[in-house]
Amino acid sequence: EAQVTQNPRYLITVTGKKLTVTCSQNMNHEYMSWYRQDPGLGLRQIYYSMNVEVTDKGDVPEGYKVSRKEKRNFPLILESPSPNQTSLYFCASSTSEGPNQPQHFGDGTRLSIL
Amino acid sequence: AQKVTQAQTEISVVEKEDVTLDCVYETRDTTYYLFWYKQPPSGELVFLIRRNSFDEQNEISGRYSWNFQKSTSSFNFTITASQVVDSAVYFCALTLFKYNFNKFYFGSGTKLNVKP
């Protein structure tokens, strides 16, 4: 089954404790992206990647890091999480024809930073 | 600057009513894509439609229809004869050629409640 898998689905942690949210897709997609969803703000793009070792900033990259060492994986790293990073996070992927193709989204990861 | 505005925060209708969700976008680019996504209560995001800036044809898919008007920078979404299963948050989004369509700009979403 074609899917984008995020882990963990839920996480409660404390300020300053490094965490990684993993994202993996099994569709051989070139393009992957991370978003955060906050009430009243919709989805905001954090980072995206056009292919292995190629990443770029979205609208709200501050406080986040990403890496794309393998095509299927695109982890989101919070080196020193803060309460304002409490949010619902989505990973997405799409084909090599470009992100203007439909994105496939993961089920989301709800992070709470205390 | 690029921006997508969904002014309707929440809409409530009774089943079988028609409902239109508004989307207004801002960009100086002439080449772009517009999208609609649905987020049901279960939380996942589901692609509904995309439209490029050179294609102003309206589209109909079953009970769903989309009206793209460049003159008013709008890409509105109409659900005909709404059903309870249409209850969800709907997002409009924009990507631009100048960023190779890599950057997405989403609106804040419209929550649609369809009551039986």
Number of helices of chain B: 0
Q: Kindly, what is the distance between the CA atoms of the first and last residues of chain A, rounded to a whole number of angstroms?
A: 36 Å
Net shape of chain B: globular
* Overall mean pLDDT of chain B: 93
Report the span from N to C terminus of chain B.
41 Å
Shape of chain A: globular
Compact overview of the structure:
Chain A has 114 residues and is mainly beta.
Features:
heterodimer; A: 114 residues; mainly beta; 11 strands; 0% helix; 50% strand; globular; B: 116 residues; 12 strands; 53% strand
Polypeptide structure, described:
The complex is a heterodimer of chains A (114) and B (116). With 114 residues, chain A is mostly beta strands. Helices cover 0% and strands 50% of the residues of chain A. In chain A, a hairpin with a 2-residue loop joins strand 5 (42-51) and strand 6. Chain A is globular and about 40 Å long. The relative contact order of chain A is 0.32. Chain B has strands spanning 3-5, 10-14, 19-21, 24-26, 32-39, 46-52, 59-61, 64-69, 74-79, 88-96, 104-106, 110-115. The termini of chain B are far apart. Classes of the chains: A mainly beta (114), B mainly beta (116).
List the helices and strands and how they pair.
The complex is a heterodimer of chains A (114) and B (116).
Chain A lengths: L3 E4 L2 E4 L5 E7 L5 E8 L3 E10 L2 E4 L7 E2 L9 E3 L8 E8 L9 E2 L3 E5 L1
Parallel strand pairs in A: 2-11
Antiparallel strand pairs in A: 1-3, 3-8, 4-5, 4-9, 5-6, 7-8, 9-10, 9-11
Chain B lengths: L2 E3 L4 E5 L4 E3 L2 E3 L5 E8 L6 E7 L6 E3 L2 E6 L4 E6 L8 E9 L7 E3 L3 E6 L1
Parallel strand pairs in B: 2-12
Antiparallel strand pairs in B: 1-4, 3-9, 5-6, 5-10, 7-8, 8-9, 10-11, 10-12
